[in-house]
């Protein structure tokens, strides 16, 4: 189905967010490769997922009859150390973007790292990555610094990384932010349809 035929409300009802295990490494690598110039391969994912500090989730269709062999719609990988956590990667397949999948993955990771005792969630994002920066800002992340020339790409000039941080003040607040966006929380229907 084309993106224009759907709204976040009907997408979220057809979406489930599942934890990932090392045996999911292959499909995560395939999705990652479709979105990043320097993708992580299956061995990278396998190693990460085997690490006890890593938390990873995939967004999948829960529609009846959905083909289990299809790639996930999106993925997020994070890492917790003591009371801090970081987002290592986030990706949503092009055909499922702008439907609320990325926001739901970040929210799921927030809840998971909070359960592990994290009070802050950090990430780095390329300065020019407007979609990702808008997504994070909309979820309450604040810019906390900049790493000059952090990203090096073949044939392109270096790009700054923007550091962002979200204070994790409890599930209630994360939930409120998502409800304001009209997204589904914990299987409850969205409170309002897409704008
Ligand atoms: C960034 C990314 C994960 C966003 O995923 P997504 O599922 O499309 O995001 P959502 O639908 O949850 O969007 C949530 C909000 O983010 C912002 N946003 C997302 N995509 C946007 C875009 N292309 N342009 C402007 N704002 C955008 C909007 O504020 C949006 O809310 P709205 O739709 O109500 O306006 C996705 O574009 C992606 O995978 N990009 C390639 C990989 C990448 O850059 N990963 C992040 C690395 S730090």
Entry summary:
With 195 residues, the chain is an alpha+beta fold. It has a single domain (3-62, 71-180), classed as Gcn5-related N-acetyltransferase (GNAT) (Aminopeptidase). Helices cover 30% and strands 29% of the residues.
So, CATH architecture?
Answer: 3-Layer(aba) Sandwich
How many runs of DSSP E, i.e. beta strands? Answer: 7
Strand content: 25-35%
CATH class, named Alpha Beta
CATH superfamily: Gcn5-related N-acetyltransferase (GNAT)
Order of helices and strands: HEHHEEEHEHEEH
How many helices? The count is: 6
Structural class: alpha+beta
* Helix percent band: 25-40%
- Describe the global form: globular
Poorly predicted segments: 1-5, 179-195
Instruction: Give the integer mean of the pLDDT values.
Output: 85
The CATH topology comes to Aminopeptidase
Bound ions, cofactors and other small molecules, one mention each = coenzyme A
Radius of gyration: 16 Å
- Count of discrete domains: 1
Task: Report on the biggest sheet.
Answer: 7 strands, mixed
Strand ordering within the main sheet: 1-2-3-4-5-7-6
């Amino acid at each position: 189905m084309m993106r224009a035929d759907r709204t976040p409300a009907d997408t979220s009802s057809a979406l489930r967010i599942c934890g990932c295990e090392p045996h999911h490494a292959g499909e995560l690598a395939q999705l990652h490769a479709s979105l990043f110039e320097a993708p992580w391969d299956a061995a990278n994912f396998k190693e990460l997922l085997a690490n006890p500090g890593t938390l990873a989730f995939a967004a999948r269709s829960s529609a009846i009859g959905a083909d289990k062999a299809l790639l996930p719609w999106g993925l997020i990988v994070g890492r917790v150390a003591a009371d801090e956590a970081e987002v290592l990667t986030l990706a949503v397949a092009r055909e499922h973007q702008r439907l609320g999948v990325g926001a739901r993955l970040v929210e799921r990771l927030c809840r998971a790292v909070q359960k592990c005792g994290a009070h802050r969630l950090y990430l780095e994002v390329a300065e020019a990555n407007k979609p990702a920066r808008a997504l994070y800002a909309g979820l309450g992340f604040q810019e906390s610094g900049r790493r000059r020339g952090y990203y090096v790409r073949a044939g392109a000039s270096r790009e700054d990384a923007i550091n962002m941080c979200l204070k994790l003040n409890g599930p209630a607040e994360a939930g409120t932010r998502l409800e304001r966006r009209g997204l589904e929380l914990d299987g409850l229907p969205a409170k309002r349809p897409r704008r």
